[in-house]
Amino acid sequence: MRLASWRLVEELLDLADVALELVDIRDPLATRSPRLELLIRRRGIPFILVLNKSDLVPRSIAEGWKKYFELREGVRTVYIAARDRKGTRVLRRTIKEVAGKTPITVAIFGIPKVGKSTLINILKGRHSARTSPYPGTPGYTTRAQLYRIGGNIYLIDTPGIVPPESNDVESLIRSKAIDELENPVEIAIKLINKIVKHNPKAFLQAYGIESTNPNEILRAIAVKRSWLYRKDREPILQEAAKALIRDYLDGKIPFYVKPPQP
Predict the structure, then answer these.
(1) Rounded Cα distance, 45 and 42, in Å
(2) Is 229 helix (H, G, I), strand (E, B) or coil?
(3) Does 3.40.50.300 match the CATH number of domain 6-157?
(4) What pLDDT is recorded for position 161?
(5) Which of 29, 43, 83, 209 is most buried by its number of CB atoms within 10 A?
(6) pLDDT at 165
(7) Residue 170: is its pLDDT beyond 90?
(8) Measured on CA atoms in the order 24, 257, 80, 73, is the torsion positive or negative?
(9) Could you give phi then psi for residue 101, rounded to 5 degrees?
């Protein structure tokens, strides 16, 4: 996993006419980057908050979060399901509306594992036209490529993965590759507690496990998948923890946080 330095983020913002921040709609507040948004505001760049993975939540929840950000914070918001190519037409239209000019250069940012690469690939599509590398840019962005993604919209294709900033467990599971986590069991327990708080039946729905106790859930997952130590046949909780974290990131565990009430 290669995170962007904040210097690179600032370089990309200096090139952009519109900045998109991609977050996970299941918990948008925990997957935002306050530092990124501050940098965007300081530059006065039109900003769109893109709530991705809307296929994992009810339509009412997606609409609720959109209303929350637009009315409470005054942030232009679009929800999409990049994996299913849903909402991308609305996103393109919104980019044109907020830019108020042409041509438009767009930069996409987000913390790890919110679907940034998927969205970039879909926007580029099979018919996008690559231009020459962006000229006159210092440092890492000398390798940035511009892609024409329709009309007069150009996309900067270069890493815009910003470091997670929240104190939530989301930061822990998105800061490193899963196999590199130092204590996956401890992190999985925190994640289970968070999920159960918002959906007590999540693990019954995902795995057929009735318990809401983190240790019992991990043991049950390990047993179901035959992850047992040879010597004493005890469940290998580390493997179960990593599988659970991976399943959560892949959207296989039903979970979402409801938007705050007005």
Answers:
(1) 8
(2) coil
(3) yes
(4) 84
(5) 209
(6) 86
(7) yes
(8) negative
(9) -160, 165
What is the mean predicted confidence (pLDDT) over 232-240? 95
What CA–CA distance (Å, rounded) separates 119 from 130?
16
Peptide bond preceding 58: is omega within 30 degrees of 0, i.e. cis? no
Full-model pTM = 0.91
Residue-level length of the chain: 262
Return the CATH number of 176-249, one of 1.10.1580, 3.40.1350, 2.60.98, 1.20.58.
1.10.1580
Ranges of H-type helices in 68-135:
88-99, 116-124
User: What is the tens place of the pLDDT at every residue in 67-107?
Assistant: 999 999 999 999 999 999 999 999 999 999 999 888 999 99
Phi, psi of 86 (to 5 degrees): -95, 130
Query: Which H or E run includes 239?
Result: helix 237-249
| 139 CB burial (10 A radius; 0-12, 13-18, 19+) | exposed
Strand arrangement of the beta sheet that strand 104-110 belongs to = 76-79, 47-52, 18-24, 104-110, 153-157, 145-148, 129-133
Q: What does the alpha-carbon distance between residue 36 and residue 137 come to, in Å, rounded to a whole number?
A: 20
| Structural domain spans, the chain | 6-157, 176-249
Q: What is the pLDDT of residue 160?
A: 75
Per the structure block, which two tokens stand in for 223? 């047993």
Phi/psi-derived region of residue 26, left when phi > 0, alpha when psi is between -120 and 50, beta in every other case:
alpha
Give the C-alpha separation, 209 to 89, whole Å. Answer: 39
Q: Provide the mean pLDDT of the chain.
A: 90
Q: What pLDDT is recorded for position 132?
A: 43
166: confidence class by pLDDT, cuts 50, 70, 90: confident
Q: Is 116 helix (H, G, I), strand (E, B) or coil?
A: helix
